[in-house]
Amino acid sequence: xxxxxxxxxxxxxxxxxxxxxxMQDTDNARLKEIVTALVKHLHxxxxxxxxxxxxxxxxxxxxxxxxxxxxxxxxxxxxxxDILGLSxxxxxxxxxGMQGETMSALLGxxxxxxxxxxxxxxxxxxxxxxxxxxxxRGRVTDTDGQPIAGALLDVWQASPDGLYENxxxxxxxxxxxxxxxxxxxxxxxxxxVKPAGYPIPMDTPAGDLIRAQKRKPMRPAHVHFIVSAxxxxxxxxxxxxxxxxxxxxxxxxGAKQQxxxxxxxxxxxxxxxxxxxxxxxxxxTFPEPxxxxxxx
Length: 296
Ligand code: BEZ
Ligand code: FE
Known about the structure:
Layout: H1 15-22, H2 29-49, H3 53-68, H4 76-83, H5 86-94, E1 133-142, E2 152-156, E3 177-181, E4 187-193, E5 198-199, H6 205-212, E6 218-219, E7 222-228, E8 235-240, H7 244-248, E9 263-265, E10 271-274, E11 277-279
Parallel strand pairs: 1-10, 1-11
Antiparallel strand pairs: 1-4, 2-3, 2-7, 5-6, 7-8, 9-10
The chain binds benzoic acid and fe (iii) ion.
Fe (iii) ion binds next to β7.
């Protein structure tokens, strides 16, 4: 055995400071802050749970399987972050709704971008889709209540049988997706079908965890919006309409009171939902779509 010429790792306690010291020269200050905290928390998590080697291998397999389950039409990393509540935590840290603006909600894994442009009152139903008609209308305003003309609403939703068009070869390309512009009075109108709650994909690593936890896989019924305008912070949100039980048991923890819509049924069986979106001042940004294409 050597005498001790320098301090190599010899006990469990040595590992964390040794690893952190190896990262000291990171130039990018934010990268250094994030990776330092990540190492400290991951090491603390391992000390708390003391995984066996088999459990560690299983955990690494799950991480690999998340990547392997992802493709142009499916984003498993987003889904996994969502079911662990990470996405909602990030959302609330960055969008607290304290300036009177409409609250945000998860982008989710099914935003494709590139949706067709629509005129005022156009329908986003592009192939036969079951379910009662839904008319979504209202205004986009600033936090002083002034209408914003020319605001862009990028909208998407699942069909009433619970699938987004990218998951379903039976739906036309971009079915239930479209881009709308507000008129001179800040108004928008969209014709669609009443959304239904739906299970998130369960034939994936996220599904394996949900089954093991005996959780309900359901999302409450909702319509997604990205609302943007010059000099305003882009709003990524969802308008919900469902039972209390469905809202409380949202598998991705996305439902919020302030963005619950009121669907009013008309005599002909169709529904109307009036909802005004409020944007706060800021710099518009646009999310990168988590998926690019449609299932083949
Ligand atoms: C969605 O709203 O489309 C969604 C969000 C998170 C996970 C799964 C679906
Ligand atoms: Fe959704």
